[in-house]
TrEMBL record:
It is a peripheral membrane protein. The keyword rRNA-binding does not apply. GO terms for cellular component: plasma membrane. This is Peptide/nickel transport system ATP-binding protein. It holds the Pfam family ABC_tran. Residues 8-258 form the ABC transporter domain. Keywords: ATP-binding, Cell inner membrane, Cell membrane, Membrane, Nucleotide-binding, Transport. It comes from the Bacteria. The keyword ATP-binding applies. InterPro entries: AAA+_ATPase, ABC_Ni/Peptide_Import, ABC_transporter-like_ATP-bd, P-loop_NTPase. It is found in: Cell inner membrane. GO terms for molecular function: ATP binding; ATP hydrolysis activity.
Length: 288
């Protein structure tokens, strides 16, 4: 059996509190990602989804106190890797798409300037003409109709969907083996979301990329991902095939599903999501 693209064992992340104690944000989670697999991570805000993705890329804030038994990418031990070598992986082998281009793109730099800044880090010897061609090609690859015009635009001149495509172009142009998409469609309407997902799907197929798809949208995850991890309070409560999520066993997962009422014949009153303190300490539901 082929070794997984990514492997995390017993990842713990905490932050110092005002009273000197450490507040746990991620509590000993373990997960794997296969090559070409689309792994969805769902859960409420604050459940540790984004921190898990940032830990893989080495992008945790300096105040974070973290540890792991295993943190491996494509056969490489990230725990033993020097910081400089770890940084070289980011943007080439591992990339992360943030959730809102309005906050992730620099408002005083054109699209071309920002793409140039990202590309120059990994290809410093490109001359101006070759760099311009690379920028335009990267924008065209994510189906931007007029890449020359968009390259010279500022972020405020772009729609939400166009800005998100720029973010995707910046992160996938090098053909990363691992792509972490943190709520990439949360600020977009349904039609634009489908277009962005189609671009992501094309990039994954082209490069055999493993995708970690972080989202609150359970129906979207069920339709787009292969497998789903459900997180609560920094722990993995349940893991299952995406197609089986509607048959999930854990009461927390059932509560999340119930909080997404159907468009046809919706209930008169939305159910309340109930939580149990025991979920923070009891064994996780067996992976299915």
């Amino acid at each position: 059996m082929q070794a997984p693209l990514c492997e995390i064992q017993n990842l713990r992340i905490g932050f110092p509190a005002h009273d000197g104690t450490v507040a746990d944000a991620v509590r000993g989670i373990s997960l794997t990602l296969q090559r070409g697999e689309r792994l969805g991570i769902v859960g409420e805000s604050g459940s540790g989804k984004s921190l898990t993705g940032r830990a893989l890329l080495g992008l945790l804030p300096p105040s974070a106190q973290w540890s792991a038994d295993t943190l491996r990418f494509d056969g490489q031990d990230l725990l033993a890797m020097r910081p400089k070598a770890r940084r070289r992986l980011c943007g080439t082998q591992m990339s992360m798409i943030l959730q809102d281009p309005k906050y992730s793109l620099n408002p005083v730099m054109t699209v071309a300037q920002q793409l140039r800044e990202a590309f120059r880090r990994h290809e410093p010897k490109l001359n101006a003409r070759a760099m311009r061609e690379k920028i335009v090609a990267a924008l065209a690859a994510v189906h931007i109709r007029n890449p020359e015009r968009v390259a010279d635009a500022y972020p405020h001149e772009l729609s939400g969907g166009m800005g998100q495509r720029v973010m995707i172009a910046m992160m996938v142009s090098a053909g990363p083996r691992l792509l972490i998409a943190d709520e990439p469609t949360s600020a977009l309407d349904v039609l634009v979301s489908m277009q962005v997902l189609a671009v992501l799907d094309e990039m994954i197929e082209k490069h055999d990329t493993g995708l970690v798809f972080i989202s609150h949208d359970l129906p979207l995850v069920m339709s787009f991902c292969d497998r789903v991890v459900v997180m609560y309070g920094g722990r993995v409560l349940e893991t299952c095939a995406a197609r089986d999520l509607k048959h999930a066993e854990h009461p927390y997962t059932r509560g999340l599903l119930a909080a997404n009422p159907p468009l046809t014949d919706p209930p008169d009153e939305l159910p309340t999501l109930r939580r149990d303190a025991a979920w923070l300490i009891e064994p996780s539901v067996k992976e299915s």
